[in-house]
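Hi R.,

Quick one: here's the NAD-dependent epimerase/dehydratase domain-containing protein sequence you asked about.
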Amino acid sequence: MHCFLNNSYQKGRGGHYFWLKKGLVEQRPDHIINMIHYEDAASLAIAILKKQLHGRIFLGCDNLPLSRQEIMDYVDQSGKFSMKFQSFTGTSGPLGKRLNNSKTRAEIGWEPKYPSFPQFLGLQE
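And here's the predicted structure, written out as tokens:
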């Protein structure tokens, strides 16, 4: 079994926290990030292992791809962090891909506890 998990997060870990601490980041703001909460990544891996599906590849993400800038805008809107992010300054590099793991969800019978990063931050229900 192979399970590919994208950018995982929790409040004090993940790309958003790294960028928040750094302040000024030399990466393009419009790069797309596919995210999954640490707990959801673990529960997906366990669900796959329980199904005993060997030699298969599965994708783990929350199905709400966000740009780096959108992620940091949500962090700022949440009011949950005392630090303030400055900006992304990059203008080159790949844009990333928008991924969807609906096929994995249907086959495994799994749904994330945190359906999206904004929901995790308490900005959406």
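The chain has a mean pLDDT of 89.

Cheers,
M.
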